[in-house]
Amino acid sequence: MSNLEVLEKLVAGTSAAKEVIVNFEDNDYPFKIRPLTDGELTKLKKIENGSLTFKVKIDDNGKRKGEPETQNQADINTGEYQERQVRAKYTAIAYSLSVDDEVFPVEKVEEFPKGLPDIVFKEVINISGLEAGDLAVLKNFL
Fold first, then answer.
1. E strands, the chain, in order
2. 13-32, pLDDT tens digit by residue?
């Protein structure tokens, strides 16, 4: 088997959609989802992390400036970070719902009733085999 044939066999697994039944407000809804690809997971990490920057003051001798207790502090806007985690979750759902050459827009996930995105995201986690270190938002689900 050539490398290309092996790759095609591996990639075929990421497009293998599975129907899951999601119970929401005492009703069952069938959703067709597929596992996330490695490339999609990389994009989700980028969405989640955004452009976090850390500033360290360095003196003329190449040593850190400042008091030891403040040298390793970072200024992170937690509201923006939480928003990016939700955006990553919604995007993961949209990726997973994009099956059979149909692209499911993130904007439609935003229109889901409260609570439904979390239920569907749990299914995405399961089918994709995601683990705690894959995305920060997973800490709320594992």
1. 18-24, 27-33
2. 556 789 999 999 999 999 99
